[in-house]
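To illustrate the input format used throughout this study, we show a single complete record. The first block contains the structure-token representation of the backbone; no residue identities are included at this stage. The design step must infer an amino acid for every position from geometry alone.
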């Protein structure tokens, strides 16, 4: 008979030998999820003997993590600001920096609730859905080029109760978009060739590269969105971008030349240039 504590120790050891970062935490999350427990409740059940069936479920999750599959794909969900979202290989896992962007917008930069929002490259729907959850009067158009990503968007909209206020639209950036918006946001692919080559296996092996790679210098999609943004913003509207950390100077010059009233550079939690907020 093997106890929960012994399985946790063995799993942690196995994962750390395979180079998995935060091996113990990964093992705890996978075990808790597989046993239907809260993570910290594992600590109250260390002496519990595990059945063969329970062990089977845990082993399959641990094996996936040992192959460097991201934890959120194995667990199938991730918390993002006010909502819990389903996560799988159809879209990028929502990142902490993007969550911080939503917090900044909600608490600091949006001094009035937006009514019409456009989320370009919505993926899991994280940005659009979190904003709809904090602005109950708002409506959003959520755009993605990938049909399978948009299925995930729709599932998440349904599960979080915002599906009557979101329209999922398959489009190459603005191509199929109609009308104007008070708030346009995008977390487009912006990794450079070099960043793609050095990214963690979790990212390279499992996440859709189409959602990550922004051309050799990471600017292909950012440039297009800045160029066309003005056409789709109302007067006084706001364009919000997540970017790579070396992109700001070029994009700000570009925005200036195009006639944006302003383009402000905002740092992420690690003090890197990460977000741009433009006004029309
Ligand atoms: N921040 C993401 C990463 O480092 C990249 C997201 C993107 O390209 N939009 O993996």
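Output of the design step:
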């Amino acid at each position: 008979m093997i106890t929960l504590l012994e399985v946790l120790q063995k799993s942690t050891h196995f994962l750390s030998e395979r180079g998995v970062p935060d091996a113990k935490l990964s093992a705890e999350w996978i075990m808790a999820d597989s046993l239907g427990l809260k993570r910290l409740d594992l600590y109250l059940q260390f002496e519990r003997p595990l059945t063969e069936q329970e062990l089977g479920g845990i082993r399959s999750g641990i094996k996936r993590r040992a192959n460097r599959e991201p934890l959120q794909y194995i667990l199938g969900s991730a918390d993002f600001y006010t909502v819990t979202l389903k996560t799988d290989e159809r879209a990028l896992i929502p990142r902490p920096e993007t969550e911080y962007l939503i917090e900044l917008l909600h608490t600091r930069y949006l001094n009035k609730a937006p009514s019409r929002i456009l989320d370009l490259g919505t993926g899991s729907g994280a940005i659009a859905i979190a904003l709809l959850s904090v602005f109950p009067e708002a409506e959003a158009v959520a755009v993605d080029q990938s049909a399978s990503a948009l299925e995930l968007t729709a599932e998440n909209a349904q599960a979080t109760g915002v599906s009557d206020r979101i329209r999922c639209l398959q489009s190459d950036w603005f191509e199929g978009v109609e009308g104007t918006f008070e708030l346009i946001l995008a977390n487009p692919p912006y990794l450079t060739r070099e960043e793609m080559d050095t990214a963690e296996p979790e990212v390279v092996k499992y996440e859709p590269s189409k959602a990550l790679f922004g051309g050799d210098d990471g600017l292909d999609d950012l440039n297009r969105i800045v160029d066309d943004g003005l056409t789709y913003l109302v007067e006084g509207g706001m364009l919000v971008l997540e970017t790579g950390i070396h992109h700001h100077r070029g994009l700000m010059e570009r925005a200036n030349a195009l006639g944006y009233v302003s383009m402000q550079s905002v740092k992420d939690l690690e003090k890197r240039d990460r977000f741009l907020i433009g006004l029309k």
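Structural context for interpreting the output: The longest strand covers residues 233-242. Strands lie at 77-80, 83-86, 116-120, 139-144, 166-170, 181-186, 233-242, 262-267, 273-279.
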